[in-house]
Every structure is written in structure tokens, then in C-alpha cells.
Amino acid sequence: MTEADQRTSASTAPPRRERTSLALLELLVATDRHGSISAAARALGVSQPSASAGMRRLERHLDLELVTRSTRGARLTETGRAAATWAREVIEASDRFETSAAALREAPSARIRLAASLTIAEYLAPRWLATLAAPRATGGPAGPEVPTPAPDVELLVRNSRTVMELVLADEADLGFIESSTMRRGLRSRTLARDELLVVVAPTHPWASRRRRTATVDELLGGGLVVRERGSGTRETLEKSLLAAGARLPDHLPYLGSTASLKTAVQYGGAVAVLSRLTVADDLARGSLVQVDVPGLDLSRRLRMIWKDGTELSTAARRIAAVAAGSAGTSHSRTARSPTIAR
């Protein structure tokens, strides 16, 4: 087509109409879905007169009879129902656009700092990060597929006490702890239930007992090795002992990692109290043996924490949702958690 032909075509083309308001299209779709303008008004949270006036504006704009009105109310005509079908596609496309734009707004280079206690960092956090790294796209069959970049995550591994301090100091966006004690200024959500187990090597005398049990006194005097102060595992053990009328001796050997405790048990004849998460494979292989200690309740909660009043970023909310969805049961410590995706 020559330039002259293009000018001629442009001059003969019909004038471009003003685009139809999305709000009016939503009204049309709601009327079709709910059966009447009054029901659509209730669903959209607008008054009946406003909805009726909006429908009249839409009819004038489209120059179509969309509604038949009678003393029993107003209902869509065949033309109105057909228009509602097309309007629904426009609204869905608009929703896809907004979702895609939101994904693009989240800066791919934004760095999220997490802090997690040792058990969670070693046995749960890797699953969450793998889920986040999996390919994910927004959009739909009729819309653009916009890859959602995985957040750039830095994971700090500390004991539960230090994790809480980091979150309170704004040095971590989210924290994950095993401690039952909560610092003021924090909110929490339970991710999973956990249990501590007393474990020994297969060659330990307790392992050959018929019922594989030990008393609290035997536990405290039988070569127990523990985590450092501030550890959620140690705190759970201390509280369980107090409830049973006992306490940890003042000068027990302590080690700073789960791996070192397991080594002390397997090769040094020690006794340790460790999370079921950390010893499940060892128990299955037979390299560790569980010993029951009647009278000790060693159950605990694994929790996600965030600073009270903090508005989490989109990336942090996404991590929170993955953790809450994959870690198991959820039970909020507080009823109000507006910034955590549920």
C-alpha cells in the first residue's frame, strides 16, 4: 500500500470510539452471574440506583439494548448475555495484565535475608528454597507468560535466640526458630510440630535394654552432651526437665552443631537429645537408637517469626507462603497477621 493509499484509508476509517469502562463491564458480568441488577449491585458493594445508572450508561455507550426492564425487575437480553461473555474475557485479560505487571515490579535483584535455627536451616529451609527456585510463570492460556524470578535469598544460620535478635534489629526479613520463648516485638506462625528424641549408639548399654527406656536421672548422669545456650533444642530440653522436677547439670559438654552431637553419640558413647527431623535417617539405618525417657515431654513447635508492624515485601511474603504451605500444619500465635500470605 502506497503512502497515499494509507492516507486515504485512514481518512475513511470510522472514528475510534472511547474505550468501555472496566467498571461498567464488571457490572454487566455481575448482572449476568447473579441474575439481576439489584443482585449485581449487592455483590459489587454499590447502591441499586448507581448500578441501574451504570447499566444505562453502558447501553448508551455501546448503543445496544442490554437489559429488559419490567415491574418485576431488570434482566439481561440475549444481546446482553452475549456482551457479558465478551466482557468476561476483557476482565480476565485485565486481571492477567495486572498480575504480570505486579510480577515485573518485584525487582529480581532484591535480596531477602532469612535467619533460621540450625534444625530448620538444615532440614526444612533447603526444601523451601528449592520450591522457590522451580520455574514459575504468571498469566494464563490467553495471556503472556511472565517468568517470576526467584528471590535472591541469603540464609543466616544461628541459634533461636540470635535469630530473634536479628529480626528485631531489621537484619533479617523473616526468622525461623525452635524456641518456645518469644521476644517482645515479634509475631509468629507455627509451621510444624516437632519432637526431640533421646538417642544413643547401637553399642550403648541402653540400646540393648528390652524396652529401651531410661530414667531422667540416668539421662542426666549418663554422658549427656547438649547444644549451646540460646539453642531452641537446649531450651526445650531444659523446660521439659523443669516440668519433671529436674534440671541440667551446670557443667555439661556442649557442642554447636547437630553433626557434632551425632558424632559424639556414634563414636564417643555419649547421649544426645535431638530433633526427630535430624535423626530420622540415622534411626532408619540403625546408626542411632532411640531411647524413651518416661516423664519427659519433648514436643515443640517450629515457628516463623517477623517483626511486629513490618510490611513484608512481595518476595518475603512469597517465601512465607512456601514455608507455611510445605512445612505442615499452621496455627497462628496471634489472630492478626496481615502481612503474611495465608
Automatic annotation (TrEMBL):
Q: Which InterPro entries match?
A: LysR_HTH_N, LysR_subst-bd, WH-like_DNA-bd_sf, WH_DNA-bd_sf
Q: Give a GO molecular function annotation for the protein.
A: transcription cis-regulatory region binding
Q: Where is the HTH lysR-type domain?
A: 20-77
Q: Is the DNA-binding keyword given for this protein? A: yes
Keywords for this protein: DNA-binding, Transcription, Transcription regulation
Q: According to the lineage, what is the superkingdom?
A: Bacteria
| Similarity comment text for this entry | Belongs to the LysR transcriptional regulatory family.
Annotated protein name in UniProt: LysR family transcriptional regulator
User: What is the scientific name of the source organism?
Assistant: Oerskovia turbata
